[in-house]
Design a protein that fits this description.
The structure is a homodimer of 360-residue chains.
Chain A: E1 4-8, H1 24-32, H2 65-77, E2 84-87, H3 101-119, E3 126-131, H4 137-147, E4 153-159, H5 172-181, E5 185-188, H6 208-214, H7 217-228, H8 231-234, E6 240-243, H9 250-264, H10 275-282, E7 283-286, H11 296-305, H12 308-311, E8 312-313, H13 336-347, H14 355-358
Helix pairs in contact in A: 3-4, 4-5
Chain lengths: 360, 360
């Protein structure tokens, strides 16, 4: 089966890998200035919740930089016959937490150049995400246009932690640039410290396991906002990918959005369709971590209510603590071909459709 | 069928009804001081989202104070054969938004005395909620003990908008008092301005219909927090009622809480059961506004996953814009007797079980 992993983290051992890709004052600041830890740490505002086990699988222990790829190849790509891995970086999305958007943008630029230079040539299965710092949408749009025509770049990526809901017109220059380059806009769980708004209502909460369970709240806010603000009327072909934010909450939010829109649609006269219709045409959800009810039929009814057959994209989240391998994806068996691979081809348009599939 | 409405709003035309129940400086401040509008307004920090239709049904137009009861009797209680109406006030829960907790407490005390004096004697179907200002838990606990033994008081009520998640030990004096008086602790959608934390992640959002759809986020945070902080280990018989916050999101949150707890339970060694088990034994959800999917089977699978037969309480939300009457409660028919009435008797223990039901 053709398998696309839409959330494959290309780790580094040390953020010093970015140094050759920086210059001027921000290189000086990155090398000499304050960081979130000792040399090698990536500067970002940290969440107030600390993972009691750390984020990485304990069987993935790179010592040198090249181990990161070697381990990924051995424990993930080759082991599970992954055909396409969308690289999502790791710490760089945390640039969204910095007050200085110029510094955040410089870090993102350095990461993008490093990723294109170091990671993409390593493996023909790799396709890249441009990471941008959304706190200055004009700078972010410049970065999207600088690299967006690279043939192996397939999406623009930010953290789901943000200063305001992503439908806000403040962010529209980013979607303008995405639409121009034909790239989807993706948000990945993260960026919950620093300048970003509290990621959950009535927060902050206290423990990591408690908090991680409710972090999808920001994604709910972004989904509602992108739809209500008319982003998909302005850019009808724009796809938004929501990564690692859970999926089973989607129907409950769409049901409320649809009911409220029907009653109060005069607030947003630019919309032409129900919120759930914009979801189905424009938003895609990555599977990991897929919810795990006692009775899988309860999950499957939920996935059916969100047209999961067409809206879900398989993701492994390699090499994180709650990594899902391909064999553990408990979705309806008839959906596997689409969710594991084909749906991704409609989102990441630069990835060629394999000949075997085109012929089917 | 025996029907309990667990969210029936006793309106006033003007907050000046509270004046006879206040004294001293805070009466002076209430009469002469700044309010959220002209004389008759209730002082509170207002949400940044304004309802484009107003909150009330447009066919409920009280002119004099006594019209509020007359209209409720005509359009709701008598029309739908309601046996028990749990009065939930209306604006008073907004006292939670005030920076001055002493003033907030004085307003709640006045409301509680007014409610007991004016509303409870009007109709034998009425049972009351003590509203407290949670921003000073010690004052709130005093108020619970002052009135908690009144034979027709059946719960303690706050807004779901709050300064921090309700499991926080900061709030435990409230649960101590609830447990002592044998009363459930209820939170109702509201209290989203002033000192309270943003009610949604990555907020604020923009439009009313958009925002209303995602306001349950704070309830998710409170549910996770009450469970994780061990409130139901400290007070095993405490019931928590979550009112008007939607229900279909509950399984998605419980599935993530259970999965994370299984992996990282060492963070909270005081817990003895899965989060979903605490939910089923200690938390109850009011139905209104019940989600309305195109295919009701999708909703019913969701409700089954949260043991809705035993965890749901019927609510009308009279006289609000999105009022649900008894006939429109689209739950599995076999559950109606429990959800419409019997489940409430296990929560509101002072309401006598009708003889006809006891005999069944």
């Amino acid at each position: 089966m053709f398998i696309v992993d839409s959330d494959c983290h290309n780790y580094w051992c040390s953020a010093t890998v970015l140094e050759p890709y920086m210059d001027g004052f921000f290189k000086d600041m990155f090398v000499r200035g304050e960081k979130t830890g000792p040399r090698g740490a990536f500067p970002h505002g940290h969440r107030p919740w600390f993972h009691p086990e750390g984020f990485s699988r304990h069987d993935v222990n790179p010592v040198e930089e090249d181990d990161n790829y070697a381990l990924m190849k051995e424990k993930h790509l080759d082991k599970y016959n992954i055909d396409v891995a969308i690289l999502t970086g790791d710490e760089p999305i945390e640039a969204s937490t910095l007050a200085n958007a110029h510094y955040a943008n410089a870090l993102c630029r350095a990461y993008n150049d490093y990723m294109i230079d170091y990671w993409l040539p390593k493996d023909s299965r790799f396709w890249g995400s441009i990471i941008v710092a959304p706190q200055d949408p004009k700078l972010a749009a410049e970065e999207i246009r600088r690299l967006g025509s690279h043939p192996r770049i397939v999406q623009v990526l930010v953290s789901h932690g943000a200063q305001r809901p992503y439908g806000d017109p403040f962010y529209h220059p980013i979607y303008e640039a995405c639409a121009e380059m034909g790239l989807p806009f993706a948000m990945h769980l993260g960026g919950q410290g620093g300048v970003n708004s509290t990621p959950i209502g009535a927060g902050p909460s206290t423990f990591f396991w408690e908090t991680h369970a409710i972090l999808p709240q920001s994604a709910m806010t972004h989904m509602a906002s992108l739809i209500a603000q008319g982003v998909f009327e302005k850019w009808p072909s724009l796809k938004v990918v929501i990564i690692e934010c859970g999926v089973a909450w989607v129907p409950s939010v769409l049901w409320r959005l649809d009911a409220n829109y029907k009653a109060l649609r005069k607030e947003t006269p630019w919309l032409k369709r129900l919120p759930s219709e914009y979801f189905k045409s424009n938003i895609r959800m990555s599977t990991q971590p897929l919810e795990q009810p006692e009775n899988v039929q309860h999950l499957w009814a939920t996935l059916e209510a969100m047209d999961g057959e067409n809206t879900l994209l398989f993701a492994s989240d390699y090499p994180h603590w709650d990594y899902d391998d391909v064999t553990k994806l408990h979705i309806p068996p008839a959906w596997r071909e689409k969710v594991l691979g084909l749906n991704a081809l409609d989102v990441y348009r630069r990835i060629p459709r394999p000949a075997a599939i085109a012929a089917e």
